[in-house]
Amino acid sequence: MDGMIPPFARAAAGPRLSRRGLGAALGALVLGASLPRRMAHAEGAAPPPPGTRVSAFLEIHPDGRFRLLSPFVEGGQGIATTMAQIMGEELDVDPARFEVECAPPGLDYAVVDGMRMTGGSSSTRSSYAIMRRLGATARDMLLRAAATRWKVRPEQLVTENGQVLHRQSGRRLTYAALAGEAMALPPAETVRLRDPRTFRYIGKPFARLDMRDKSTGRAAYSIDTRVDGMLQAAVQHAPRIGAEAGDFLNEAEVRAMPGVHSIHRLKDAVAVVADSWWRARRAVETLKVDWKPGQGGLPEDFSSAGMLAALKAERGTGAVAEEKGDTEAALRGAAKVIEAEYDAPYLSHAQLEPPSALARFNADGTLDLWLPNQMPELFQGAAAQVAGLKPEEVRLHSPMLGGFFGRHFLYDFANPFQQAIQLAQAVQRPVKVIWSREEEFARDAVRPMGFTRFRAGLDANGMPVGLQAAVVGEGPIGRYFGAAMGNPPVDPSMVEGIVERPYAIPNRRIDCVRHPQPAVIAFWRSVGHSMNEFFYESFLDEIAAAGGKDPFALRMELLKDSPRQRDLLRAVGDLSGGWKRGPYEAEGGKRARGVALASAFNTEVATIAEVSIAEGEVQVHEVWVAIDPGSIVNPAIITNQVQSAVALGLSSSLLEEVVYEKGAPQARNFDAYPILNRTRMPRVRVRIIESGAPMGGIGEPGLPGVPPAVANAVAALTGQRVRSLPFSKTRFGAV
Amino acid sequence: MIELTINGTTRQIDVEGDTPLLWVLRDTLGMTGTKYGCGIAQCGACSVLLDGQATRSCVTPVESAVGAQITTIEAIETLPVGKKVVAAWVGGEVPQCGYCQSGQVIAATALLQQTPKPTDEDIAAAMTNLCRCGTYNNIADAVRHAASAA
Ligand code: FES
Ligand code: FES
């Protein structure tokens, strides 16, 4: 597809911001109101490395408020609270006292491998050490400031929840009273961190900070933003990406509708600006547009069925993603060879907050922009391009997200901020664009379609001796980062979950066979893992069946060299009351269980699901999850994230599928794209295991094990092996 | 002019009579606690109380709400049951992204006002709002907790 902003082209190189431009943004980020100006921004000095400048992350206000500027955006994953816990632990301030906000764009916040994003389940693990050090550095500055004031040695002082104490004399001062002096001090090169054995906040189920606001309607999202003099806009996208607006057939009628300000032609859409969003929407949906085929975009005959057929027909060999031993020879010498093909559909993010963007040009030519996003600097740069400004002339605001799951990266045709900028320029007023749910389904970037072909060879004892897989398709890493990475032949987001499995299968070969997909593809919670563990772990159960083995016992045996995963498998077995496959009688019907392992984002997960069949459909009653993220910050947040990941894993595998026909997705609302409701939610039990391995991710790893655990349970119960998602495509007979 | 009673206050509103109540609340009155999710009565994010009934305001023409007592999430804690529900939501740490939760709290309040001691079936029948973050188990626990709170 051509003529588009390459979404991640600048990401790998890190945010492009000039020091001069940062001044405006960072000037406000002072620690304490009395911080001398020269400390706020040393013009011309070499920029400090990301994650080291205390005043970029922490403000201590004279009224005793602690404001934490987080590199990450809160969207339900609890990262605001996690950051407060880590910072509070070392600063010695109760995390409940923090106000946490997503920081504006700035080099200081490039703490995820030199860039900044909220994604990849990377927030806590990437910034854990950084936030600890920042908290400890700030505490040390406060101690030294107090020591100077009292003319004592810093070693004689202690801190206690936001105060510095001199025990000998009984004197005490609040951090707020010391903040100005403290920040004038040079930060220490090295600071002592707290002994983890004395942690009060880290590792504890600390209550999330935003619960009240979110239970009383006070939490404000992008869609809720408003500014003085603002107009609102609604859009009608082209029926297919690539089509272009020709004549308006009833323009006079639409112009005369109540509240209508103006009608606009945009790339890929037409828009109506009005005095309220409902009036704008009414008008734009009344507007009759003569859409012309146009150039490029999605082919007019593009369909998901055609895409799947093309992936299945792809016989290219691709590139080797993993190779061990001699798989061809192992398969030739095997007592038994089995084969299977698996596929998974396009998926929508379907986060509950529809996308929006509010653009306001200011008298000095700068632009304020509010929009849901997972990468502030990237959007700042893209917005500057659209507006014809320098990045530092764009003040980007990143409100709380009403769900994201990978939705709010920069994808072609998938973000409304370009429309808001163009409309604000055209009408010379601030404009907020909201996409209706229908327009969102029309332009959401989708989880790629997946297809994998497996072959396995078993020896006479039923043990797998060789495994071969061809993973066919395209992944978001390859599409969006490929060029920046020098176009490696293997796209890790295609093969993750199929390569580097912990099982002792002596010969294996995994090929990455790239086959481009015209649809605009996206990151979607757990990315390639969202389908690849389904493929692999389902096929592993097929191997067990072919070898006459119990799937749990076979996994145990194959994990002989992987003690971490072995422990986890045992743990999930215990959590479920002891492994049993079934079928067995329970609550007046037949049920069975399935098991699956997942390794994602440096976290290991073992999942067991219990299912029955009712009226031809899969019912999931219980899900048990043992998760080992190495070490943790907040067990309550982890438990909730696992609940959430189970729900999304189940929703996608039971119900979801974006169907394209004639170049366009067919479902435009939740009536035609059903998502998991309360009646389908199983009971979920979680056990967290801290093996001490390097800290892994939390937001995504709970998802990949769910679809295969369910599929394996269904196979145990019905004898039917589901190899194509979602389950709702398959009707099951009575059991 | 259309006259509405919202959270005990009378408001005069100048919009087309078929405008959904949701957009009157959000745009005309600036009360953004009530959320837009789907616009077709599928998700429940837009729920408000209309004479105590949980009602999906995205498909409620504003003229049909004339004469009714409208309660939105902004005033939920002025109701004794609403106050208990919010306490249970906060205590049970129900919300994740939070976007659906205004509607969930409204639905739970309506349920417990009508059925102070709901069975699991009552909860299932009343709590039909969607949550993409999958907070359903916490929601059910919080409803039970609010019901048992004195
Ligand atoms: S917005 Fe009203 S039900 Fe979804
Ligand atoms: S908490 Fe996010 S949609 Fe319910």
TrEMBL record, chain B:
Alphabetized PROSITE patterns for the sequence: 2FE2S_FER_1 (PS00197), 2FE2S_FER_2 (PS51085)
Organism domain of life: Bacteria
Annotated keywords: 2Fe-2S, Iron, Iron-sulfur, Metal-binding, Oxidoreductase
Protein name (record): (2Fe-2S)-binding protein
Coiled-coil segments: none
Domain 2Fe-2S ferredoxin-type: 1-76
Biological source species: Roseomonas populi
SUPFAM superfamilies reported for this sequence: 2Fe-2S ferredoxin-like, CO dehydrogenase ISP C-domain like
Entry annotated with the keyword Iron: yes
Entry-linked Pfam families: Fer2 (PF00111), Fer2_2 (PF01799)
